[in-house]
Amino acid sequence: MDKQRENILLAKIRGGDKKAFEALFRQYYPHLCLYTTKVLKNPSAAEEIVQELFVLLWENRKKTKIESSLQNYLFRAVKNHCLNYIKHNQIVNEHSKKVLAQTEKFYSGENIDTQQELFQKIEESISELPEKRQKIFRMSREEGLKYNEIALKLNISVKTVETQIGLAISTLRKKLRHFLIF
């Protein structure tokens, strides 16, 4: 596409012409997806990044200034999005490794006393719940019953079951907060 046609297309897009934007999308979307897939080796992430780029382009159409060619702008933008995606994934992976290491350390033989203390404290905390809440919580967590099954067995509403479980979890979080290292 020559510079003059690009400028006309961009002017139409800035003016809110959806057909012009669709033409731009149809022309560049497949090429940008292919490029991004080669960079990321993840087709679904690649499509998401390219779609996000077009959404941002449309949302910022009035203030976006493209000095170089439209094609260069789009490929440079998608490259930057790929780099951000890669950096973000590296941070997430590092965090996951830290959490995994903490979990492995906690569940190793070194922390058997802490584990036993935690399980004992959990059981004590559940036992301290009001009788009806405790029963509903145990039916859900220990027996693996669904909310509607509990409601039927106890002849109460599903909403009551949801409320009681929510309150039980909230109470347990408060009582066990110093164990919540993750």
From TrEMBL:
Residues 24-90 form the RNA polymerase sigma-70 region domain. Keywords: Sigma factor, Transcription, Transcription regulation. Residues 120-169 form the RNA polymerase sigma factor 70 region 4 type domain. SUPFAM superfamilies: Sigma2 domain of RNA polymerase sigma factors, Sigma3 and sigma4 domains of RNA polymerase sigma factors. GO terms for biological process: DNA-templated transcription initiation. GO terms for molecular function: DNA binding; sigma factor activity. The keyword Glycoprotein does not apply. PANTHER family: RNA POLYMERASE ECF-TYPE SIGMA FACTO, RNA POLYMERASE SIGMA-70 FACTOR ECF SUBFAMILY. Belongs to the sigma-70 factor family. ECF subfamily. This is RNA polymerase sigma-70 factor, ECF subfamily. It comes from Mariniphaga anaerophila.
